[in-house]
Amino acid sequence: MFIVDRIALTHPDHPILVVDLYDEGGRTFRIIPSEMCPVWGNLWLGNLDFDDFADHVDKDGIFRGFPKR
């Protein structure tokens, strides 16, 4: 589930809250808006799991994309 809350509306990067409703209900992380479509698509297709994104958040708990190689 993707949630736009007060933090998403007031934080300079507008990080959207992502909530796991499937594996570990209630686990969360945030994403910047430009990463919403890739995250949603990969979760929907089953290419990547919630953990794949949640394990790559920055120190603020925000997923800003995977590191460039």
Description:
With 69 residues, this protein is an alpha+beta fold. The chain has one domain. The protein contains 3 helices and 4 strands; from the N terminus they run βαββααβ. A 4-stranded mixed beta sheet has the order 1-2-3-4, with no helix packed on it. The radius of gyration is 11 Å and the shape is globular. It starts with a strand and ends in a 6-residue tail after the last strand. The model has no long low-confidence stretch (mean pLDDT 93).
**SSE ordering:** EHEEHHE
Helix content: 25-40%
Helix count, DSSP H or I runs of 4 or more residues: 3
Q: Find the structural class using helix and strand composition.
A: alpha+beta
What distinguishing features does this structure have?
69 residues; single chain; alpha+beta
Summary of the model, kept short:
The protein is an alpha+beta fold. It is built from three helices and four strands, in the order E-H-E-E-H-H-E. The chain has one domain.
